[in-house]
Amino acid sequence: MDALMMSRLQFAVATFFHFIFVPLTLGLSFLVAIMETQYVRTGDEEYKRMAKFWGKIFILNFVLGVVTGITLEFQFGTNWAGYSKYVGDIFGSILAIEATLTFFLESTMIGVWHFGWKKLSARGHAVCIWLVALAGSMSAYWILVANAWMQSPVGYVIRQGRAELTDFWAVITQPFAILSVIHVLSAAFVLAGFFVMGVSAYHILRKQNLTFFKRSFRLGLVFALIFSIVTVVGGDLHGRSMSATQPTKLAAVEAQWETAKSVPFYMLVIPSESQERNIVEWFGLPKMMSWLAHSDWNAEIRGLKSWPLEERPPVTLVFWSFRFMVGLGFLFVILMLVGLFKRNKLEESRGFLHLMVWAIPLPYIAASLGWTVTEVGRQPWIVYGVMKTSDAVSRIPDYQVGISLTAFIVVYSILGVICFYLIRKFAIQGPPPVPAATR
Amino acid sequence: MLELQQIWFLLWGILWAVYFMLDGFDLGLGALAPFVAASDRDKRVIYNAMGPVWDGNEVWLITAGGVTFAAFPTAYAIMFSTLYTPLLLILFALILRAVSFEFRGKIQSAGWYRLWEVGHFLGSFLPALLLGVAFANIFQGIPIDKEGIFHGTLLTLLNPYGILGGLLFVLLFLVHGALWLAVKAEGPLEERAGRCASVIWWALLVVAVVFLIATFFMTSLYANYFRRPYLFVVPLVTVLALLATRVLIAKKAWLMAWFASALTIVGATLFGVIGLYPFILPSSLDPAASVTVFNSSSSPLTLKIMLVVTLIFLPIVIAYQVWTYYVFRGKLTEEDLASEEAY
Predict the structure, then answer these.
(1) CB-CB: which of A74, A101, A111 is closest to B91?
(2) Closest Cα to residue A423, out of A128, A25, A18?
(3) DSSP code for A270
């Protein structure tokens, strides 16, 4: 393998690992903030215990998210020097703004919140976790603005051999970015909701801390119900915007080889990249795909074969990732609708509770599949239509990247295992018993 | 009138200086921990002395990196691809430090504690050393050609001047960290921390003098100072701050000594950065291949937008970080250590 392929793998390892922790941080911060606010408003100690229990898991997860994020920022320089030089004027400034505006706030307030239970008033302390939550989401906004620019570059001009900013407002408000933010944040909230429900279901099944975990479960349920619908609707809008901004990605996502009008949507498709056609196309819904992509039953969809081979993304991986992600997205909505009916008889719904315990990993998988579609689907471009990934890599010796890639895999695997073990341990342990004096 | 690039170069230097000033005491204290702690309780005092603030301190590094990317993208690209191995080592070490804070107290077992104590030490010591090595090499010049390609290995960077820079950083941070511990701890631990600061200060003095002399012979940092002698006020204040640190240590005025040490670190960083100008990454192969503030910067529009954002939000950041230090002011109490959130 050469430095290019290993650098790509290294970035993939680093981002996927980072994004195991990020969505739970984004979502759980709000859930903890809501719990603590309930405590401040009602004075009910149970809510305080909830905030502390979920907060403990939140902190552990948060730290892993932070440290894995730092390596990402610097990897643009270490491994993607060509890219950094070419687009730093725009991409770099967005990252710097993210750090100054939001990451400072998030990281400073998390320390105050973690250690400040007795240093601040109850109200002041609750404000801290709200600031953490809001700063986290704003942080995600800036990062997704930067990513959106790679998918759909706007507000720039090529000058002196690089992309220079001409319209900052266009960069930070383009629809692609806004739709990404809606889709990613709501998916993160679904993930956090499923996490809280899954852990709570485990305890409800064992009849431990029943009121505590039923409250937690219902909070997670409301959260995940609302945002699973937002994720699907936002994802649909996002997909439609893709037809204008990234036609090759759309074609790969739908395994559309030939340019055609009034394209049907097939429920079951098996694409073959070598044969440049689909081996299986079953259960077609007439004209559906044209409508999904362009909101027009007779619209034309450009096929993959209209682009030269070297400008097409890998079809199989992008196609299957997209299908499974969408399938999971709908599954989440269905599960939450079932949950809505069972919300008042949770203890009796043992089958549903078991299902929710096993559903914890599903939103994680969906999120990873989503990023696979976004990033692999953009290939061979690093900035769509502007710069190829192969032109972006640093000119560094292969062995250097080989060593660092190995180090990433080893270090992250160890961290992942320990973090999984600890979170599992605390989740199963449940909250500490209520001291007798306050009972 | 300063040009945009000059303002940004100054801001760039200040961001690094503040990072070294703040995370410097965390890194120094982490490196000092195994030698100053006599008991498990001492160790917990040390970790909790940094607990509420280390994460916020570390963000100055992210911002310094982000600003390098935003304001001088070409410098960012060449600097970080050139310093590939040391930079990744620093980042992995910082990961190790962060998780050591979090993981250590989570399982009650002596072996587990020991594991993350070693992790915390390495995660503190290595960044202190390598950041010094990296900056000394930048001051000295790095073998890069006109394409920005690095002609050397990790060993190229471990030259005598580079190692001297690493040693200087480690000692600066050790004194800084020992003083922070003296501020936060009580009793014998406070005494030991103060004594550490006092002893290490002499080593720091020797290395600082050697470094200033070596800098004269091995870099061209002084050129700017001879051209504009009023700039000598920066190294002068730095040396005075270093001496003041010693006086204040003797008086056991720990917090004031910490401030003097902070000023020393900021001054030392700015001394290098001012000497570096107009270079941001001088080439030791070919002066024409050097990366300067002017040939590596972003467009005026980006620099202006970034300047507005920074001038509005950085003061806000400073305000709430100062507030954080105020909330957690004073000695660590038994109640602090007994809380279930403590490390």
Answers:
(1) A74
(2) A25
(3) E
What interface predicted TM-score (ipTM) does this complex get? 0.91
Locus of tokens 């002041």 = A124
Digit-coded pLDDT (tens) for B267-290 = 999 999 999 989 999 998 888 889
Chain B contacts of A115, Cβ < 8 Å? Answer: 48, 51-52, 328, 336, 339, 341-342
Report the distance separating Cα A240 and Cα A291, nearest Å: 9
Cite the DSSP H helix spans in A80-103. Answer: 81-87, 93-98
B145 near A CB under 8 A:
no
Query: Which residues constitute the domain of residue B289?
Result: 4-338
CA angle A129, A132, A137 (to 5 degrees): 130
Q: How far apart are CA B130 and CA B165, in angstroms?
A: 9
In a domain, B343, yes or no: no
* Residue B247 burial (CB count, 10 A): 12
Q: Taking the mean position of all CA atoms in its chain, how far away is CA B186?
A: 26
Given pLDDT bands bounded at 50, 70 and 90, which one contains residue A439?
very low
pTM of the model: 0.93
And the tokens for A417?
């295992």
Supply A269's token pair.
């498709």
Q: Are A93 and B56 within 8 A, CB to CB?
A: no
| Cis peptide upstream of residue A380 (ω within 30 degrees of 0) | yes
**How many Cβ atoms sit within 10 Å of the Cβ of residue A234?**
21
The amino acid at A174:
Q
Peptide bond into A175 cis (omega under 30): no
Q: Which residue has the tokens 């310093």?
A: B83
Cα separations in angstroms, A31 against A37, A110, A142, B85, B91: 10, 15, 22, 40, 31
Number of domains in chain B: 1
